[in-house]
Amino acid sequence: MIQPFLGVEPTINPTAFIADSADIIGDVHIGEMSSVWFNVTIRGDVNKIRIGNHSNVQDNVCIHVMNQTGPTQIVDEVTIGHGAVVHGCTIQSRVLVGMNATLLDGCVVESDVIVAAGTLVPPGKVLEAGYLYMGSPVKKVRKLSDQERASIGDYARNYVRYSRVYKGEHSYTENPFYRRDP
User: Fold this and answer.
1) pLDDT top residue among 83 and 164
2) What is the CATH code of the structural domain delimited by 2-174?
């Protein structure tokens, strides 16, 4: 469902993929080649939500905002894993947010970061660029390797490819990620 709130309509780039079961409400902008998957809620009712280009919001994610004081900003090539909660915070480019992670009000995730599955990022915390973070509450674990940093972009590109199949632009047999054994 794509629904206005108080007269403000979501704006979605025509190249984006939005699953039928996703709920996108109010002051939300979704950029080029981004994707919003099944049972996602993106609720821009009491503040704005901006999702950049080539980002993906996977199944059962909830994105919300802080009333009048904290928008949510998700920049480019961000992957938000299944079941994550993203609330009133900023996620810069090339970030992987693991499944069931929770990012709370006013936190900032700088570019080139991996937030491990199940991590809790408390309000106002800043995650420095180039590191792996995990835990509840979050702790800096170690610097990312060059291969890990590159993998963040790979996840984003994979989801662009998946979304093209769902939009009917490619068949599964043309999709290099689909494998069906005879």
Assistant:
1) 83
2) 2.160.10.10
